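Intended use. Records like the one below are meant for learning the mapping from a protein sequence to its folded structure. Do not use them to infer anything beyond what is encoded.
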Amino acid sequence: MEKSFENILKNSERNDGNILSILQDVQETFGYIPEEAVNWLSKRLDIPASRIFGIITFYSQFYLKPRGENIITVCRGTACHVKGSEKLINKLFIELGIPPTEDTSDDLKFTIEKVNCLGACGIAPVVVFNKNVHGKMSLDKLTKMIRKLRSDE
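Structure written out for the chain above:
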């Protein structure tokens, strides 16, 4: 792991990178930003770990925990909520066996994201499967999409 951190830092120095580009490279390498990376960067760059954590938690693009191979994003905006997005979210947690307090399955196959708005109100409720947008989602369609994702594994 430390060798990866060294390579990321060397690459950043060659390309006049900053802490954001370094964190992006760490996440690209590991799929998230491990706590070990924060502590290592803190020592090497002489930046308090709390400041690095502050940057990570400020930007929604960064993740401190591993994410699943399949990312399922459910809109919770007003139109989607009115058309049943909460039922879809509950169904996802049950179907994928993810406890409501978590967002990623134990086997790291699935991550459920809940977002405030996807801007596709006209096709509510909206669910995004691995960056593919699906509107007018129903419980039946959702179940079929999950089965398809599982069969593609």
